[in-house]
Amino acid sequence: MIACLGRIVHDSDAESKLDDDVSTIFNSLNLQGSIENGDVSGIASKDFGGLYSVKPLYLIRPSGAEDISRVVKAAAGTPHLTVAARGNGHSINGQAMADGGYVIDMRSTGENHFKLLTVNGSPCIDVSGGALWEDVLRRCVSRFGLAPRSWTDYLSLTVGGTLSNAGVSGQAFRYGPQTSNVTELEVVTGKGDITVCSETQNPELFFGALGGLGQFGIITRARVKLQLAPDMVRWIRVVYAEFEEFTRDAEFLVSQKEDESFDYVEGFVFCNNDDPVNGWPSVQLNPDQEFNPAHLPQTAGPVLYCLELAFHYRNSDQPSTVDMAVSRLVGGLGFVDGLISQVDVSYMGFLLRVKRAEQDAKANGVWDNPHPWLNLFVSKSDIVDFDQTVFKKMVKNGIGGPMLIYPLLRSKWDSRTSVALPEGEIFYIVALLRFVPKGPSVEKKVAENREIVKWCIKEGLDFKLYLPHYRAKEDWKRHFGNQWTRFEKRKANFDPMAILAPGQRIFKRTNQ
Ligand code: FAD
């Protein structure tokens, strides 16, 4: 089998033979799923970022972990082939690509696992690494009235894809990121071994794979913690003119006990003007509640800040009880009088809110524009400087998309996972989610992102890139800091030939 693979790769006329040989490969790998030739315009050569494109050798749609194991072992038998798991391809910088290698479309395994269990008295669900979070949500709520505790804003992402990064949204201040909400994984390592791991069973692989950027194994199954799903959500936005007041309230809310705060806390920066994408209209939750700039103080600057909050409740709760609880929480906040907007939506409707934005953006033709996005974690100690330089100067005219900023608590993250974080207990996620029309402005925006990162480094900010993308080993070493040695050791243990996730550009494929 392996010999056959090597022959195809090395033949000088391999291109012309590929179509014939793909069936030979299929048979020799003994795949239950399917395989097709890599294509420059196929899904495996692209991602959501739209910034990079490479040509894979083959695209494989595995039927499960055994197929994936066979592909990894076959790649290991060649001197240079690599294997990239592709979740839903929502990376920005080619992280799920494999130039001249195998791309494994994890979506073909999306339905493989869906089993409710009780672990230590608490409900959990076993789901496939290739399942979309939106499908996990729908199935858990409709079948069991239960739901995962920690989410991402957008749910057309795969379980394995977000667990390989962290998975962050407005619930993470309470429950930690998605990587803090799984108790067991099944992983295919870079040696092709199918291994079950948890905090107590193969813990190095378990914690390594969580936030591991796909470097140590391909997650084929995850056991996700569940809780009772609420029926409804009161979704609220309140506006601040001053950054210090915004951060004071945001930090207060994420530091309170569960029954003394909201169930979701996020925030964003927007322009103090009537631009439909970047300005006042971007705050409106409800067409009847128009943003009235007359409420703003004279001192308001070029950008304003919005806290986005959610309060969960059940259909059986008395409306007056919900109103009172929300009023009490909102009453403690120092936002600009009159600049509040709120709406009641179903829990599913709330969690699927970005799906609706996606549908609108697709209808307007902007969803498929390039996305030179930048995501950072910035320590509370540096966030005022960041605001002064980046929000108030560099991007003060908006970026043609959301500029998220909200606080997270380091103590809710497990330091044994592979995720790199700033030092401080409170740090902010900052996400510059640009939608840029194809053309020369894309490169300008990529350069603008680079400037921001360079500025953070020059000023010695306590920060990390989230969904990191570096090219040079030195940058990766700096990114991981004192965790680099552990990261390298894990690589040597679980993927010694550096076969997996080559699109992250951390390690070079070796033949040892
Ligand atoms: P891919 O992009 O396909 O893969 C990402 C990386 O993980 C690659 O290196 C790939 O090889 C590896 N990988 C994929 N599947 C597996 C697997 N099963 N096992 C091991 N490695 C694997 N992130 C947040 O945290 N919070 C958000 O709110 C959020 N919102 C987003 C909104 C949009 C519109 C988009 C495009 C992205 C958002 N993200 C968010 C980022 C998202 O978490 C990443 O894009 C992530 O990579 C998941 O995407 P994916 O499933 O498509 O994975």
TrEMBL record:
Enzyme class: oxidoreductase
Keywords annotated in UniProt: FAD, Flavoprotein, Oxidoreductase
GO molecular function, one term: cytokinin dehydrogenase activity
Needed co-factor(s): FAD
Enzyme Commission code(s) on record: 1.5.99.12
SUPFAM superfamilies noted in UniProt: FAD-binding/transporter-associated domain-like (SSF56176), FAD-linked oxidases, C-terminal domain (SSF55103)
Annotated InterPro entries: Cytok_DH_C_sf, Cytokinin_DH_FAD/cytokin-bd, FAD-bd_PCMH, FAD-bd_PCMH-like_sf, FAD-bd_PCMH_sub1, FAD-bd_PCMH_sub2, FAD-linked_Oxase-like_C, FAD-linked_Oxidoreductases_BP
GO biological process: cytokinin metabolic process
Reaction(s) catalysed (UniProt annotation): N(6)-dimethylallyladenine + A + H2O = 3-methyl-2-butenal + adenine + AH2
Matches recorded under Pfam families: Cytokin-bind (PF09265), FAD_binding_4 (PF01565)
Family named by the database record: Belongs to the oxygen-dependent FAD-linked oxidoreductase family.
Name used for this protein in its record: cytokinin dehydrogenase
